[in-house]
Amino acid sequence: MTKIFWAFLIGGGICVIGQLLMDVARLTPAHTTCTLVVCGAILGGLGLYDPFVEFAGAGATIPISSFGNSLVKGALMEAKSTGFIGVLTGIFEITSSGISAAIIFSFIAALIFKPKG
Q: 66 phi and psi, to 5 degrees?
């Protein structure tokens, strides 16, 4: 029960931060998304995002900030094993399933629902 509480609180907190960036700082949704991805990447690069995930669970893995962490994690893992070229290939290797799922589900949704035009 405690894990669910913290996941809800942390995930909601990340969403509140994103909403405040749009409402108070007047950032566009694209700028807000990029900001959260970069923050996740920085925290991942510093080794702080994984302990955050251990504590918050899905509250830290579901928001967009986790995507930035995944990019850095993949790049660092591949860089250790294959060198500089691993920085590029690692990014695609670790995030390819999520990106592929987003493309496939978006395509299916476009087939089912009539887009506004």
A: -65, -30
Q: Is the distance from CB of 62 to CB of 14 less than 8 angstroms?
A: no
Which has the closest alpha carbon to 39: 54, 17, 24? 17
pTM of the model: 0.78
Residue type, 105: F
Radius of gyration of the chain (CA): 16
Distance, in Å, from the CA atom of 84 to the CA atom of 74, rounded to the nearest integer, reads: 13
Residue pLDDT, tens place only, 42-74:
999 999 999 999 999 999 988 889 989 988 988
Q: How many Å separate Cα 74 from the centre of its chain?
A: 13
**DSSP code, position 73:** H
> Quick check: 85 and 75 in contact, CB under 8 A?
no
